[in-house]
Amino acid sequence: MRTLILLALAGLGAQLVDGSLGMAYGVTSTTLLLAVGTNPAAASATVHLAEIGTTLVSGAAHWRFGNVDWRVVAKIGVPGAVGAFVGATVLSGLSTELAEPAMSVILLGLGLYVLGRFTLLGLPTGNLGKPLRKRFLGPLGIVAGFLDATGGGGWGPVGTPAILASGRLEPRKVIGSIDTSEFLVALAASAGFLVGLGSEGVDAAWVLALLAGGLVAAPLAAWLVRHVPPRLLGSAVGGLIVLTNVRTLLRSDWVGAGDGVQWTVYALVYVLWAAALGHSFREHRRTRNAPAPEQGDTPVSEAAPAPSAPRTPTA
After folding, report:
1. Which of 25, 207, 234, 307 is 20 to 30 A removed from 216 (C-alpha atoms)?
2. What's the confidence (pLDDT) of residue 200?
């Protein structure tokens, strides 16, 4: 019973972060399952089965609050489902230990870009509103879906920073679209695990516990992401990406840092992240509280047109 309560609380916390920042449900939940002795394939299968329900409710909530771009969902979700199904069926014979650090380097770079871009310059607007093309979203979806199924998480950590970095979609719609399209990924991954594993190692009670916690948090997270300022949201997502991938690299065979080094680096990242969030919040308040231009300062292009002089009647 204690384990089920812990799983429900983990599902609630993970979905709250995932639904508001676009990542971390799979990584958080899978890490907990591995910690209690579940094998990697069964842990990923359990998480993805729970995600069928949480992503469905989360997607509906994001749609209700206007956070979803359905064109992005279609362009990235279908390739993501293909990648997830393939990843799930080959997980038992695949080792991602070498690929994980390499992917973390790429994601760390994207995270630093997102963190710096939103913190220092605010919401990118130069490309805002331009369409995201299939040749970008298709391969991104396949890679993210494959990593999500094989690693127990990866759809958000790969998809969210890549789309944010493009500057073509505002943060809340990036997060809402990624969360909504994840339903297709979870469905395909679960089907792949059922084909490859059957129900071996999957505890239905654990699935339901994770699902229950996630269902409670999903609507709250969708509401939250709509009301958090875009600049602050971008800094929050960027910091989470940096922290997650720094952690992966420090614990990998590439680095193998000791506990002292790890905690020192974590402390520095937390300080940097807190400073970035503070700066973004101050800039948001400064912009929001900036006085409106006086009437005499109204630009010519925005001024009301002067009334035309009355025409003199002609004889």
Report:
1. 234
2. 64
